[in-house]
Design goal:
heterodimer, A: alpha+beta, Ubiquitin-like (UB roll), FAD/NAD(P)-binding domain, 22% helix, 28% strand, B: alpha+beta, four-stranded antiparallel beta sheet, two-stranded antiparallel sheet, globular
């Protein structure tokens, strides 16, 4: 389409504006091809094309049009883009027009102009505030099955694609001296002065074009137009190396201690992101904040004030002056202040027909406008026009033609961020609005319209004052620069909220379909408090969070209750200022990247072998190593167990936590954190240790080796590696700060392999350099710092989890991959087998070792048969409280073993024990099975678990029942040490 | 929140792990006659002040210092930050 053609089709386009007429952009709205220009928003382009009807309302499905030109938009929510890029509830007023944009209107069944759900509007008398609460009470079962699904289908805003969002979202951190929120006149001036003074400045504005109202008004500054003055300041700001100008960036929240959240829309204005981050969620750390967030215009409630064509007066000026679009050809104005008159004046100057200015104030008109009828002390009672405004009627009966009605109910400062730390705004009668209170977030100062200083000259003066204070605080000197001379006007508002003689419903909250009647009903039913009003009527609870509606609703409630507005209350704002996509909060932490995946040093090698992996906390560990011909995991696991017990097996145990403990008091320190004693451990020896919590419950266990007089190495369980280390640092720093001991986590520094089985010694002898591994020279529980493979440093521990003759060998992590390959090669002659976590688990159950399934946060040392390990000769964490009576009863649970009476039966973890033939009820519960496995060594299923007085019940037969799977297996109580109970193998 | 680490300066609270009341430093004497009761109180009984609160924070994503942070629970204002080991020594934990 040629430029000429596209301009012809845009019948509401006028001269001027900040759009680029040389850059035509084609877009699609409800399958209709339309054009606009670069610099347009979707809303301005729709208005340029005369598209007034843009959606249906949430509850009554009323026809709705664009009301604002900013983030406060309540009606013009569209479904943007298509397929997996679909984005519902997007405000057309802040969507930059790009070539190929596709948008659809929301909330209707059938075409927008013939919504079948509009029947709800006829049912309006039944759908008022509290309707759902009162109606869908009975019968109770109907709520979930009938009422809710129907209501959900009828209400709601846009719909999601149900597909995964293909775009990338990022997070970032910015540190600065001054954060300036808002790039209007006050923000630009503050940022420039702070930037010139040398402060590190971040200037963030939600708009793609900085300048704020300067772009929307016809002000002059030093004889320049507002927009060109803004351009000049922006150009200088961008040239300063210490200033970062961030358009398309919304500061959505003020958090503690100068931390702010900001959302930057990087590629939302492009058709495709093409791999670049779509949005960036910034965390901004700042010393001072200048809040220059401007103000939002309010409407007035009158009959049928929701008809497409009824708009905010300031928005009409924005469309006219910035976007070169007139929202109508015959415009009327309804105002309670002088600002509304400015809209009429700007329209007249562009030769748009203004049919009347209706002013609720019973005074003289602020100025005469040629050919415009002024109705002072007048009110609009109703509007007409089925899908768009055609006429307005005053309470006097007079009526005017109008396809657009510009309404100005006064301006509310955007105090949102001042409330995020519980600050309460205060009422200001002069401007009939809430302004920031004294209780601001620390480091925040407010300038311009956000502070209630609504005129341009006042805004600039307040910016000058605020920035000087900021620079003074920062120890910087303010540049000497005089403020520009400005054309100016005052607002002169006389508060006026709603037309009592309205004909038809008068809307307060467009987005949630709340009318003055709903507010009246809330008052009648006793919901006077503003928080009750909000929840009962849903006023201000839509996605716009009542930016245009809250004050209006509050004021109307105040009128009904005969109180002043400050007496009625105020709503407090919480983050976010405007909606932030969940995707932005998630950033790159999605799916597998939700948290880092930790790989063991043998991971590549195990992958080559085709290992099956399992997630263990953040780690991926080899679960088993299938071989050709094995079709079931049990085949692989049974083979790994049998082969290890028959010859030798190797398992990566790197994931166990390792803590290096050094210092003259290391032994004393360990005595205090472990229930048993370690200061007496000989150098070159390892000991099993049990760690209690201060309440006497088992926290963790593992082995600790003494490598030197002042040097120990502790292992923790994989799961508790972090929390045990944290606990030990607490003990060291907070409880015993004068002990000479230091800790460091060495989990990542050492690759560690268990080498287990009767041939483990022979295998290792081939790896180690000149060290005698005979039982005499290197007995069970010995340890040493050695070298392997011709000089590689290593640590060797003779410890066994499998119950076999076994060792664990550790090498610096960088040698981990080589080490496993060397071990496997050296083991070839013994038919060495790698084993995974499943075989590891089978062998530990066969040995009756407690692990994660057994140490469950209620387990005492006595429960696992280690009661005597808690030394009474010394103080240690948990020592005193472990003696509590309730933790030491003889009838307590004990860890014992179980075998099925019928060996062909399979045991089930989680089964509970009841005496044979007794009813399966809680009263008869005597304990539970914590771990089970098939023991290839014994040839049947085995289990370990907790049983009341288990130590005294060997040989007893019980029922192991699982009501969940409706199964019951007769089991015999046995020792939990199924294999080699005397421990001859591991000492051999 | 920002915590002014005595050794490292202002750090984001996200780098820390919170434990709780700083009274956990005052671990009772095991050999005192009322040790069981003292340990019970030490472990389970806490004040829950609306206002100034001394609490333990651990710089886990940092230098692993335990800190005693004096914070107003109503405003989140932080009055002081000390190394827990210094506080422990001042409180006579030199055993």
């Amino acid at each position: 389409m040629s430029t000429e053609q596209s301009q012809r089709s845009q019948r509401n386009r006028v001269d001027g504006g900040l759009i680029d007429r040389s850059d035509t952009r084609t877009f699609e709205f409800n399958n209709k091809l339309l054009t606009g220009f670069a610099g347009d928003t979707l809303a301005s382009a729709l208005l340029a094309n005369g598209q007034r009807l843009v959606g249906r309302s949430f509850k009554y499905h009323r026809p709705r049009g664009i009301v604002s030109a900013g983030v406060e938009e309540a009606n013009a929510l569209v479904e943007l883009r298509s397929g997996n890029l679909t984005e519902p509830n997007t405000r057309a007023t802040v969507t930059e027009l790009f070539d190929g944009l596709v948008a659809k209107s929301q909330n209707h069944k059938g075409p927008l102009a013939f919504d079948v759900m509009a029947v709800n509007d006829a049912l309006a008398p039944f759908l008022s505030a509290g309707f759902y609460y009162k109606t869908f009470m009975w019968p109770k079962a109907f709520w979930e099955k009938l009422y809710e699904p129907v209501i959900r289908a009828a209400a709601g805003l846009g719909s999601l694609s149900g597909e995964e969002d293909p775009d990338v979202y990022d997070k970032g951190f910015i540190h600065c001296d001054v954060l300036v929120v808002g790039g209007g006149p006050a923000g630009l001036w503050s940022a420039l002065m702070a930037g010139r003074a040398g402060a590190r400045v971040v200037l963030a504005d939600e708009d793609f074009q900085l300048g704020g109202r300067l772009n929307a008004e016809t002000h002059t500054l030093n004889d320049q137009s507002g927009a060109s003055w803004a351009q000049q300041l922006i150009a200088e700001l961008e040239s300063l190396p210490n200033v970062r100008v961030m358009p398309r960036t919304t500061v959505y929240g003020a958090f503690d201690h100068g931390v702010y959240g900001a959302l930057e829309r990087k590629t939302d204005h492009l058709r495709l992101s093409e791999g670049k981050p779509r949005q960036v969620l910034w965390r901004v750390y700042t010393k001072r904040t200048v809040l220059a967030s401007g103000a939002t215009e309010r409407s007035i409630a009158f009959g049928n004030n929701d008809r497409p064509g009824v708009m905010l007066a300031g928005a009409v000026r924005t469309y006219l002056n910035r976007f070169a679009v007139t929202p109508g050809q015959h415009v009327a104005v309804f105002t309670n202040n002088n600002d509304g008159w400015q809209t009429a004046k700007d329209l007249v100057n562009k030769n748009i027909n203004v049919t009347a200015v209706i002013d609720s104030r019973d005074t003289d008109a602020p100025f005469e406008l040629n050919g415009v009828q002024a109705c002072m002390g007048a009110q609009v009672a109703s509007t007409s026009g089925r899908l768009g405004l055609k006429r307005i009627t005053l309470t006097s009966g007079k009526s005017f033609e109008a396809d657009c009605l510009a309404v100005s109910g006064g301006w509310s400062p955007n105090v949102h961020l001042t409330c995020h730390q519980r600050g309460r705004p205060v009422w200001n009668d002069t401007i009939a609005a809430f302004v920031p209170g004294a209780d601001l977030p620390s480091g925040m100062l407010v300038a311009g319209a956000a502070n209630g200083e609504l005129s341009l000259s006042d805004a600039l003066r307040s910016a000058q004052r605020v920035v000087n204070e900021v620079l003074n605080d920062l120890g910087l000197s303010a540049p000497a620069e005089a403020l520009p001379t400005t054309s100016d006007s005052t607002v002169d508002i006389t508060a006026f909220w709603h037309v009592k003689e309205s004909k038809g419903r008068a809307w307060v909250d467009w987005q949630n379909d709340v009318t003055t009647k709903d507010v009246a009903q809330a008052h009648l039913e006793g919901f006077h408090a503003v928080e009750h009003l909000k929840r009962y009527t849903t006023l201000g609870m839509a996605t716009d969070q009542g930016k245009t509606a809250n004050v209006l609703g509050l004021a109307i409630m105040a009128e009904y209750s005969g109180k002043s507005i400050p007496e009625t209350g105020t709503t407090i704002f919480r983050p976010p200022y405007t909606p932030v996509p969940i995707a932005a909060f998630a950033g790159r932490s999605r799916g597998k990247n939700f948290r880092p995946t930790r790989l063991t040093p043998s991971h590549d090698w195990a992958t080559e072998l085709g290992a099956q992996f399992v997630e263990v906390g953040p780690w991926l560990r080899a679960q088993w190593f299938p071989r050709a011909g094995e079709s079931h995991w049990r085949e692989s696991v049974d083979r790994e167990v049998l082969q290890t017990r028959a010859s030798v097996g190797i398992c990566d145990v790197t994931t166990l936590g390792k803590i290096d403990i050094q210092g003259a008091d290391a032994g004393v320190f360990l005595d205090r954190v472990y229930a048993n004693t370690f200061s007496s451990l000989a150098v070159g020896k390892v000991r099993y240790g049990l760690m209690l919590r201060e309440d006497g419950i088992a926290m963790d266990d593992g082995t600790t080796a003494r490598l030197g007089e002042h040097h120990y190495v502790m292992t923790t369980t994989t799961a508790n590696a972090v929390s045990v280390f944290r606990h030990m640092e607490f003990c060291r720093q907070c409880l015993w700060p004068n002990l000479d001991v230091h800790l460091i986590s060495a989990t990542d520094q050492w690759a560690q392999y268990a080498v287990a089985g009767p041939n483990s010694r022979s295998l290792l002898q081939k790896i180690v350099d000149d060290i005698d591994l005979s039982n005499e020279a290197f007995a069970f529980m010995a340890c040493a710092e050695i070298t392997v493979c011709g000089g590689t440093p290593a640590r060797l521990f003779r410890i066994s989890f499998s119950g076999e003759l076994a060792y664990e060998i550790a090498v610096p992590t960088r040698y981990g991959d080589s080490m496993i390959r060397e071990l496997m090669q050296a083991g070839e002659e013994f038919d060495v087998v790698p084993y995974g976590t499943e075989a590891l688990g089978v062998m530990r159950i066969e040995k009756g070792h407690a692990a994660g399934n057994e140490l469950i946060g209620t387990t005492t040392a006595a429960n696992i048969g280690l009661g005597r390990m808690v030394s009474k000769k010394k103080d240690s964490i948990g020592n005193v409280l472990s003696e509590r009576e309730g933790l030491n009863s003889e009838s307590d649970n004990r860890l014992v073993g179980f075998i099925p009476v019928d060996k062909s039966r399979e045991l089930q973890a989680g089964s509970h024990f009841v005496q044979t033939g007794h009813a399966v009820v809680t009263e008869n519960d005597q304990g539970w099975m914590s771990s089970v496995c098939y023991s290839p060594t014994l040839g049947h299923s085995i289990g370990i678990g907790y049983l009341q007085r288990g130590q005294d019940r060997m040989g007893e037969v019980l029922d192991a029942v699982s009501p969940l799977t409706d199964s019951s297996v007769a089991v015999e109580v046995v020792s939990p040490h199924f294999v080699d109970p005397e421990g001859e193998r591991l000492r051999g | 929140m920002m915590i002014n680490h005595p050794l490292l300066g202002l750090r984001d609270a996200a780098e820390f792990v919170y434990l709780g009341d700083a009274s956990l430093i005052n671990r009772p004497d095991r050999d005192a006659p009322d040790a069981a009761a003292a340990f019970y109180e030490y472990l389970h009984l806490r004040d829950n002040p609306a206002g100034t609160h001394r609490e333990l924070w651990y710089h886990e994503q940092g230098d692993r210092s335990w800190l005693v942070v004096t914070r107003n629970t109503l405003t989140h204002d932080i009055e002081s930050v000390e190394l827990a080991s210094d506080v422990a020594r001042q409180q006579g934990r030199d055993v």
